[in-house]
Amino acid sequence: MRKLADTIHKTAVTGLMGLTLLGAKKFSLNHLSYLPKMSSFIYRKIGMFLGFFKFKAISQKFYSTAKERTWNVIRTNHVAVVTSDMQKSVKLFEDTLGIKTSQSIPLPEHGVSTVFVELSNMKLELLHPLGDKSPIEKFLQKNPIGGMHHICLEVDNIKNAVKDLKEKNIRLLNEEPKIGAHGKPVIFLHPKDCSGVLIELEQV
């Protein structure tokens, strides 16, 4: 691009010099008065020409960067809520709100038992501590009656997501995906790197 600009510049200067010499021989001073206008016209055209290629280069760079993405978020799978009393919470959703719930699913590798509340467009996940070293015990100590714990987003390629997030210095609570409540690989992102929100990614 730089060589092209230099070539155009030299051509324009040479042309103007030629016109000047020609004007000195064949034209009157009135004709030579057009040279500044001609110079301005030529340089405007050069600017438009180079500007077009600059815009094209930037747009191509943006497009190629957008295509480099190797994983994507599909949709929200569920919002997880910690409860200190699972039976009481299930009764609230089933008897009071009339919403269907799943059977309790023990997940010893995650230190929780879970019940899913089935909604039309997503799920709620009720979490209760399981075992002596449950990761949600501290949450209940700070929030004795429970509360919202995390959101789960579905992704199309969790392996690529893990690699990409590590490269972007997003801390993970588990270095490699584990099998979650739906029997699919999941990974948790550190809330301090996600605007204070604990995010779970689940392979679809």
Automatic annotation (TrEMBL):
VOC domain: residues covered: 75-204
Protein origin, superkingdom: Eukaryota
Catalytic reactions of this protein: (R)-methylmalonyl-CoA = (S)-methylmalonyl-CoA
Cellular component per GO, a single term: mitochondrion
EC number: 5.1.99.1
Gene3D superfamilies given in the database record: 2,3-Dihydroxybiphenyl 1,2-Dioxygenase, domain 1 (3.10.180.10)
Enzyme class: isomerase
Alphabetized UniProt keyword annotations: Cobalt, Isomerase, Metal-binding
Pfam families in UniProt: Glyoxalase_4
Keyword Cell wall biogenesis/degradation in record: no
GO MF term (any one): methylmalonyl-CoA epimerase activity
Single GO biological process annotation from the record: L-methylmalonyl-CoA metabolic process
Job of this protein: Methylmalonyl-CoA epimerase involved in propionyl-CoA metabolism.
Family named by the database record: Belongs to the methylmalonyl-CoA epimerase family.
PANTHER family xrefs: METHYLMALONYL-COA EPIMERASE (PTHR43048), METHYLMALONYL-COA EPIMERASE, MITOCHONDRIAL (PTHR43048:SF3)
Protein name as it appears in the record: Methylmalonyl-CoA epimerase, mitochondrial
Organism from which the protein derives: Nephila pilipes
Gene: MCEE
